[in-house]
Every structure is written in structure tokens, then in C-alpha cells.
């Protein structure tokens, strides 16, 4: 089992301590998972389908219980609104406009529309939908719906933002753009984020800590810290290549910050020199790194 430490040094928001989860059908979805999420961390849970990423996220969110182990909140159990959750699907109310969709969590708190108007508009501005408060979900693209979903998670100003493969269903260009915007928001606000993904590229691009998981049983196998410099940016940049080494092809579509000499060297050391875990991808796809 890998013991995962925080990297930001500001104390932990939440810790999983030796958490196991067995479903009633006997599936051991998580085994002895320990994980500290520090304030301001952007942590990716990375692994193949079925390795327990969503189960871990749902346990942190309080949407599922543990079979063994504990979820520890050092500052006290979260109250309503302290945990923001973004699902893979935007899950918007089709009969309500954008404003009302974002208002929903505050409405459930009993906050009136007029009292929350400024905060809803602020959340919409943040995700780039300032002019769409009166639009209905049917009038929005997939990427815009996801932005509404993110605004809805942010409107309560959560202490921790949990994102369960939020961009997996989007086309690649929209996904890159949303990744970029999310990263810029995180760089500006330093929220605490736990981001589930099975994309190695996405995890390296976004996070400062990558928790690698494996399946059957779901468990943490490795943690990687990613101190590549900020600001990172890619959506507006043309595809870049990295120098090749013997037997490997050029890597395409890497963000510019990965192409700088110090970052490149540290990335390669960290991600390719771990025996048996990481290796250079030999095709010309977008990301060179894969988990064995
Ligand atoms: P991931 O998010 O990494 O794809 P999940 O956390 O969704 O993985 O699932 C981990 C394992 O737990 C899988 O084998 C899945 O089939 C199983 N699982 C998830 N939810 C349930 C459930 N409600 N009942 C039974 N098994 C489940």
C-alpha cells in the first residue's frame, strides 16, 4: 500500500485512513487505501476503469460508506456545501435555466434567489458563462453544460472540489479547453481538488500530485508528485514535440511547459525512470506515457 503525503504543506482537508470498501455482491472495490488531501492540492486519481477511483471519490463526498477504515476531516465534518461534486454527466435540470441550475444547491440550503444572485453570477463569470444565465440546457453545447455543472459545484464555495471524470464525454478540443480553464482557475484560486481520470495526459497536465491506482482489488500502487511549473497552458499553443531517444517516436501535442528543458528532464526522470511502471509511448498519440 502506498502512503500518500500532501505536497502543499498547508495541512490536510481530508484523509482516508486504511479505507476498504466491499460491495454487497462481494466486489472488493478498495483495499487499504490511505490518502491525505492537503489544502490547495490538485490531486488526480489515475487508473484504469474499475480500479475504485469513483468509489474513493464517493466515499470522500459522503455518498458511500466504508467497510473498513476511516475518513478523517481534521477541521471537523463537512457541512452542506463544503464539498462540491462534479459528475461525468452535467446532470442539469432541463426545465430550469442556467441561473436556476446553478442556484440549486443554495436553494436546497433555503437561500432565496435574490440573496444568491451575486454569487450565482460570480460562479457563472468564473466558468465563462456570464452571458448565459437565462439560457436553457437544450441551448448549450456539451462543454457549456459541463461549465454550468462546475459553476453549480462552485457556488457554495466548497472546501474541496471533487470531480469524477468531468470531461471524459467531451470531444478532445473541448476537453483541452476545459482542462486549460480549470487549470487557470485553480492557479488563481488554489482550491483543493480531487480529480478522477483515466487519462495519463490529463493527470500530468492538471495536477500537482498523481495517485496511481490498480484494479482487483482497487488500491493505490504509486504516488507521483508533479512540480512542473505554473502557469501551464496548452489550448492556445500549437502541438509541440520533444526530442526523441533511441527506439521512441516524437511526442505530439505536449504543452509548452513540458517542452522546457528543466521540466522535460524532471518529467522524464520522474515518469520514465521508475522501473516497470512508466515507459515511453511508441506511437504518435498525444501522450507518451502509459502505465504498464
Ligand atoms: P472506477 O471509477 O475506477 O472505474 P469504480 O469505483 O466505479 O471504478 O468501481 C470499482 C469496482 O467496484 C468495479 O469493479 C465496479 O464494478 C464495482 N462497483 C462499483 N459500484 C458498485 C456497486 N454499487 N455495487 C457493486 N459493485 C460496484
Index terms:
disordered C terminus; Rossmann fold; 7 helices; 292 residues; 23% strand; 4-stranded mixed β-sheet; binds adenosine-5'-diphosphate; alpha/beta; 6-stranded mixed β-sheet
CATH architecture type: 3-Layer(aba) Sandwich
The CATH C-level class name: Alpha Beta
Strand portion: 15-25%
The tally of helices reads: 7
Identify the bound ligands.
adenosine-5'-diphosphate
Which class best fits the helix and strand makeup? alpha/beta
Describe the global form: globular
User: How many strands in all?
Assistant: 12
Order of helices and strands: EEEEHEEHHHEHEHEEHEE
N-end to C-end Cα span:
18 Å
Compute the number of structural domains. 1
CATH superfamily: P-loop containing nucleotide triphosphate hydrolases
Order of adjacent strands in the largest pleated sheet:
6-7-8-4-9-10
Provide a short characterization of the protein structure.
The protein has about 290 residues and is of the alpha/beta class.
Can you give a write-up of this model?
- The protein has 292 residues and is an alpha/beta fold.
- The protein has a single domain, classed as Rossmann fold (3-Layer(aba) Sandwich), CATH 3.40.50.300.
- It is 29% helix and 23% strand.
- The protein has helices spanning 53-61, 98-108, 113-126, 142-154, 172-189, 200-206, 261-272, and strands at residues 3-4, 12-22, 28-38, 42-46, 68-72, 83-86, 160-164, 193-197, 209-214, 219-225, 278-280, 289-291.
- The strands form 3 sheets. The chain has a 6-stranded mixed β-sheet with strand order 6-7-8-4-9-10, with helices on both faces. The protein has a 4-stranded mixed β-sheet with strand order 1-3-2-5, with helices on one face.
- Helix 2 (98-108) crosses helix 3 (113-126), helix 2 runs parallel beside helix 4 and helix 3 (113-126) crosses helix 4 (142-154).
- The longest helix is centred in the middle third of the chain and has 18 residues, at 172-189.
- The radius of gyration is 19 Å and the shape is globular.
- Bound molecules: adenosine-5'-diphosphate.
- Adenosine-5'-diphosphate (ADP) binds next to helix 1.
Amino acid at each position: 500500500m502506498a502512503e500518500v503525503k500532501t505536497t502543499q504543506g498547508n495541512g490536510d482537508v481530508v484523509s482516508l485512513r486504511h479505507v476498504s470498501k466491499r460491495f454487497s455482491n462481494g466486489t472488493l472495490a478498495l483495499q487499504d487505501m490511505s490518502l491525505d488531501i492537503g489544502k490547495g492540492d490538485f490531486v488526480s486519481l489515475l487508473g484504469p476503469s474499475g480500479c475504485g477511483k469513483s468509489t474513493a471519490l464517493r466515499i470522500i463526498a459522503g455518498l458511500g460508506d466504508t467497510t473498513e477504515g476511516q475518513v478523517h476531516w481534521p477541521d471537523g465534518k463537512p457541512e452542506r456545501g463544503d464539498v462540491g461534486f462534479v459528475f461525468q454527466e452535467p446532470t442539469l435540470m432541463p426545465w430550469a435555466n442556467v441561473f436556476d441550475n446553478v442556484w440549486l444547491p443554495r436553494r436546497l440550503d433555503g437561500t432565496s434567489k435574490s440573496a444568491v444572485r451575486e454569487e450565482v453570477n460570480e460562479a457563472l463569470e468564473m466558468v465563462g458563462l456570464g452571458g448565459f444565465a437565462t439560457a436553457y440546457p437544450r441551448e448549450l453545447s456539451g462543454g457549456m453544460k459541463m461549465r454550468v455543472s462546475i459553476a453549480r459545484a462552485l457556488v457554495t464555495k466548497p472546501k474541496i472540489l471533487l470531480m469524477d471524470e468531468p470531461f471524459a464525454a467531451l470531444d478532445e478540443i473541448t476537453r483541452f479547453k476545459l482542462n486549460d480553464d480549470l487549470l487557470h482557475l485553480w492557479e488563481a484560486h488554489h482550491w483543493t481538488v480531487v480529480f478522477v481520470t483515466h487519462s495519463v495526459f490529463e493527470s500530468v497536465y492538471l495536477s500537482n500530485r498523481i495517485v496511481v491506482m490498480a484494479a482487483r482489488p482497487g488500491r493505490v500502487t504509486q504516488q507521483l508528485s508533479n512540480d512542473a511549473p505554473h502557469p501551464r497552458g496548452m489550448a492556445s499553443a500549437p502541438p509541440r514535440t520533444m526530442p526523441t531517444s533511441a527506439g521512441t517516436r516524437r511526442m505530439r501535442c505536449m504543452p509548452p511547459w513540458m517542452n522546457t528543458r528543466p521540466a522535460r528532464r524532471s518529467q522524464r526522470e520522474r515518469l520514465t525512470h521508475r522501473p516497470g511502471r512508466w515507459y515511453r509511448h511508441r506511437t504518435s498519440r498525444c501522450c507518451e506515457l502509459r502505465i504498464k
